[in-house]
Amino acid sequence: LTAALEEMQVRVTKAMLPVEKKAAQCALDCYGDLSDPNAVHNCAQRCQSSLERTGKRIQNELQALQTSTQSCQQSVLQRLNPQMEMAQNEGKAWKIKNIEAAFNEGLTRCFKEALEQLPGIEARTQTILKER
Q: For the segment 104-115, what is each residue's pLDDT rounded down to a tens digit?
């Protein structure tokens, strides 16, 4: 999952470069008429704000994935924790081993679900960037 996220991040970062360039050019263009410093600064701020909104939308996509994955992991932990406590109190090593295996299977499922979401996240991210 980490490798797939890093690969996607590299692609998104590359796709952001033209958007960043456009915002920088927008800000530079604001300095065409230097007669009103407030107008120049307001113009440059609008260019920067647009870039920040785009970045925030992309960040929200990634945050949703992280939240979803963490919720899945927490659900697995909460479901198995009472069983683990009971098995530990009973001192039954075979039960503990089975619960640990179920925990690992649950986490694997969470990561698999996260991986399955990556293409959709990347597609939405590309759409956000094209809107700019």
A: 999 999 999 999
The burial of 48, by beta-carbon neighbours within 10 Å (0-12 exposed, 13-18 middle, 19 or more buried), is given as: middle
129 contacts 21 by C-beta, under 8 angstroms:
no
Burial of 99 (0-12, 13-18, 19+ CB in 10 A): buried
Per-residue confidence (pLDDT) for residue 2, from 0 to 100: 87
Question: Would the pLDDT of 131 be above 90?
Answer: no
> Which tokens hold the place of 6?
């890093």
* Separation of alpha carbons 126 and 120, rounded Å: 10
